[in-house]
């Protein structure tokens, strides 16, 4: 007998007093579902998650959750009142015996539970909310942009954690790599309607574009039919029209159908204002070193950035990526070494903290407060790449409507703030762009467009991002900060750098039997003699080794083709590199399993 859905929405309507955000929305979530929830910024993704969680009551319709089924929601702005530390918040609804779950999640997400809630950043608070939800492990997890403010290593940990879970989940994310890895179906919000497509996220965008093409074709046919019927109504003789009132009513119905259709908004009009051409050499750093107390950002670092390069900076949160870019653009002084900037540099910066935006200013003021960008004597116009534009018209290019122009910045969503900041920097000419985590909160369509305009940009780009897919699409060079001042430069994007880093990690993580292991604290010890993290690692390793063995088998089968090297040399080289990487990782995993198993048995 089929089990009932764990959550069902039927005929949901929600409008917040204005035009309906959702109309007659219905969806079903089954046990084990792994769903991506996608749509443009402002389409209602976060609101729909809150309706699923029961935090927002719909104007009409029903929400059904079977008795005994738990639903958990990861809040973007969690209420931590009464919790002195992030750890206190994460454990609030759990018993002392489940503290280890919070500790394990905090370790994977690189969260310090002892951090004061009053001093915690927005990213730390969101990671605490995510750790809390993972520890609680409800039957259905609702995840709102869980990868925002996570570095690539923490995202990889989260992917592993969600891949192994038995719970159903719905996640909002712009990270294609994350969605491809985890989700089995996609919920797409478009103009108040939710469509579901089963299958890998890889096929979603082609399906979405085909849906739009079919819609455009149907609208074109409807317009032609209305035009033909209107011509008949005008040209037909009076007597015939009287005998064919049914046809006249049908024409009225066709016009009503067209009027009821919700037209699709076009994409944001992104375009960078290119300044004068810079010199061929944009940045040259030789032997630069920078430290803050005991924290070493870089040591004897050399790099040359040429005009047109797209350089991505990757590494753990807090490792110094933004600081390194400030060193390379002359905004900070190195302790040692020399920096030479090219000629005619005009810098534009997208700040991950959105510090350039005053939360109390209006969108209008945010575009006109800069005297250099305002048209002289006209407070309602802004200079956009040398051409005066009305503020409201320019805001519409970035998908803001007229009613938002006088609204405060603090009322905007994360994605809307990102678009407003893009509007500011795109109004000014530049030839060197610094984009510090621009992908946070932007929807996939806007990311696609941003990638396109970056590829057409004649200047140079320095990019900080944790979005692996975006890095692969944009970067020509990857600069990896690996800690303790070590920085390596690789040609290509994340996929070119990652296998080499994984090979290094595998060799470092292989346990050395001669090296004594630190004693676990009393709060970490379990009955097996292992820490909680080690115990769960021991349980997870067999599945990981089985997966690696399967991947090795597929790669060996591929490489057994004697003609592969001649026919596809690039594919052969990548497969060979991947095989070596997985064999090293398998060896390290086997060694780690043996070591942990021996310790467990000897306790």
Helix content: 40-55%
Oligomer: single chain
- The shape is globular
Low-confidence stretches: 512-528
Helical stretch tally: 19
User: Strands of the largest sheet, in order across it?
Assistant: 5-6-7-3-8-9
User: Taking all residues together, what is the mean pLDDT?
Assistant: 83
Output the CATH topology of the largest domain. Rossmann fold
Q: Can you tell me the CATH architecture of the largest domain? A: 3-Layer(aba) Sandwich
* Structural category: alpha/beta
Q: What's the main sheet like?
A: 6 strands, mixed
As for the number of domains, it is 4
Radius of gyration: 28 Å
Beta-strand percent range: 15-25%
What is the number of beta strands?
Answer: 22
């Amino acid at each position: 007998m089929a089990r009932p859905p764990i959550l069902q929405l039927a005929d949901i309507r929600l409008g917040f007093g204005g035009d309906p955000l959702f109309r007659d929305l219905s969806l079903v979530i089954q046990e084990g579902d792994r769903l991506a929830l996608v749509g443009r910024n402002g389409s209602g993704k976060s609101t729909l998650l809150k309706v699923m969680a029961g935090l927002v009551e719909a104007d009409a319709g029903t929400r059904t959750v079977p008795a005994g089924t738990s639903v958990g929601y990861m809040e973007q702005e969690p209420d931590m009142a009464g919790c002195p530390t992030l750890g206190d918040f994460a454990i609030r609804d759990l018993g002392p015996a489940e503290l280890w779950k919070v500790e394990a999640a905090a370790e994977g997400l690189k969260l310090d539970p002892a951090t004061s809630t009053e001093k915690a950043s927005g990213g730390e608070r969101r990671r605490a909310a995510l750790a809390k939800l993972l520890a609680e492990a409800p039957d259905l997890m609702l995840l709102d942009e869980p990868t925002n403010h996570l570095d690539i290593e923490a995202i990889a940990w989260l992917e592993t954690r969600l891949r192994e879970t038995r719970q159903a989940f719905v996640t909002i994310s712009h990270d294609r790599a994350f969605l491809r890895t985890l989700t089995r179906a996609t919920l797409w919000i478009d103009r108040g309607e939710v469509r579901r497509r089963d299958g890998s996220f890889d096929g979603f965008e082609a399906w979405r574009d085909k849906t739009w093409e079919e819609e455009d074709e149907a609208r074109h046919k409807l317009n032609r039919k209305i035009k033909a019927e209107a011509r008949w109504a005008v040209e037909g003789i009076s007597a015939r029209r009287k005998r064919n009132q049914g046809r006249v009513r049908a024409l009225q119905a066709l016009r009503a159908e067209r009027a009821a259709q919700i037209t699709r908004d076009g994409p944001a009009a992104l375009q960078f204002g290119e300044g004068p051409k810079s010199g061929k050499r944009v940045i040259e750093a030789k032997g630069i070193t920078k430290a803050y107390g005991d924290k070493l950002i870089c040591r004897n670092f050399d790099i040359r950035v040429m005009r047109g390069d797209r350089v991505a900076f990757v590494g753990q949160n807090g490792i110094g990526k933004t600081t390194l870019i400030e060193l390379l653009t002359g905004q900070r002084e190195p302790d040692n070494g020399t920096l030479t900037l090219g000629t005619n540099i005009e810098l534009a910066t997208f700040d991950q903290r959105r510090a350039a935006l005053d939360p109390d200013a209006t969108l209008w003021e945010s575009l006109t407060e800069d005297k250099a960008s305002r048209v002289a004597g006209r407070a309602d116009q802004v200079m956009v790449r040398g051409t005066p534009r009305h503020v409201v018209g320019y805001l519409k290019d970035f998908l803001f409507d007229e009613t938002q122009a006088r609204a405060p910045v603090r009322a905007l969503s994360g994605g809307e703030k990102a678009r407003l900041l893009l509007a500011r920097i795109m109004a000014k000419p530049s030839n060197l762009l610094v984009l510090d985590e621009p992908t946070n909160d932007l929807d996939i369509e806007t990311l696609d467009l941003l990638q396109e305009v970056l590829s057409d940009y004649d200047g140079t780009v320095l990019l900080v991002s944790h979005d692996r897919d975006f890095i692969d699409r944009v970067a020509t060079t990857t600069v990896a900060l690996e800690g303790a001042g070590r920085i390596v430069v690789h040609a290509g994007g994340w996929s070119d750098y990652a296998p080499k880093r994984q090979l290094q990690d595998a060799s470092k993580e292989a346990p050395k039997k001669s090296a004594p292991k630190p004693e676990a604290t009393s709060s970490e010890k379990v009955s097996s003699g292992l820490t909680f993290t080690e115990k769960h690692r021991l349980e997870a390793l067999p599945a990981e080794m089985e997966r690696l063995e399967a991947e090795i088998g597929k790669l060996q089968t591929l490489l057994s083709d004697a003609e592969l090297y001649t026919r596809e040399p690039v594919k052969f080289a990548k497969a060979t590199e991947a095989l070596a990487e997985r064999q090293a990782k398998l060896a390290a995993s086997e060694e780690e399993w043996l070591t942990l198993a021996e310790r467990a048995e000897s306790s």
